[in-house]
Amino acid sequence: MPYKKYKNKLSLFIVPTGIGASIGGYAGDASPYAQKIAKTFPLIVNPNVVNAACFSGIRENMFYVEGWSIGQFMKGNLSLKPSTNNSIGIIFDKAISNGILNIHLNTIGAVKTVYSCNIMGYEITEEECGIEYFMTPAGVSSGRVQNNETMLKAAKKLIERGAQTIAVVCKFEEPPEDNYKFGNSPDIVGGIEAIISHYLTKELMIPVVHAPAFEEIDITTDLVDARASAEYITPTFLPCLLLGLQNAPLIFNGYNDSLLNCNDIRSIIVPHTAIGSSVVLDAIAKNIPILAVKENSTVLDINDCALDLQNAIIGVDRYKDCYNFLREVIPT
Questions:
Q1: Where are the beta strands (DSSP E) in the chain?
Q2: What is the pLDDT of residues 137-146, one digit of tens each?
Q3: How many CA atoms lie within 13 A of 331 on its CB side?
Q4: Rounded to two decimals, what is the model's pTM?
């Protein structure tokens, strides 16, 4: 088993999408923190941790796993098989104009040339996907898709052609002016991106991630917050998806002891105000340490006191403290 070295040594490094995390709520800005830990200890990361438009924070010793898959993984409902050089298919929303489509096709050519990604082809949906996005009253990013079926149909065509993983690019209307680019508000499109990825991954049982396409492609001359800057210097956010999917682990139904499974997890690393997810609660039931990082704030207020979990949560001040914790409990 070539991935035996990862058994019983994994940690989950999670920053949920669309909750305004001060670290990881922008464009790949949690990458340096995850990279520091992953130099020594293997990590499963959700795409939000490392995706950064035309850049990617993914590194060796990191497993790029979509959020729905992480939730099912922690329940013991699926297992992960490390993989390399995955065959990647791409879905484009029919609503994307020809000019913007050409920019993305040029992007595919560039990523194939520079990184040797195994991109097997693309499909354009038969109908427009109809993407809507908004902020909830609680300040969390969300949205809806009017036509899930057209995406699903295109995805199945790609799988029939040999795709092992899929990137989805849907047309988004231009976002309203907000303070995201100045580092003062959540990413308004992040929530619906997660919804799309969750839906297709669940239906297809293969890794699926999403990036938006905007018709307005002018590069801003404003000086923006460094954490968000990757998204303001490029007209396409597709490259980070392709770089993540290239070596993403494949997912398999059920608990399999010969693959990577929930019993191989040694800790969960999350922002300290975002511990209400099923991932955290399932980990607590399995006596897996939860490292709640106080330096990473969010718009939520779901902490150990709010959930009466003081005895189950290990509060740490910084991500650096997570590294020190793992050094004590995992042999290197």
A1: 10-13, 43-45, 51-52, 55-56, 62-64, 78-81, 88-92, 119-124, 131-135, 141-145, 165-171, 208-213, 250-253, 265-271, 290-293, 313-316
A2: 888 899 999 9
A3: 3
A4: 0.95
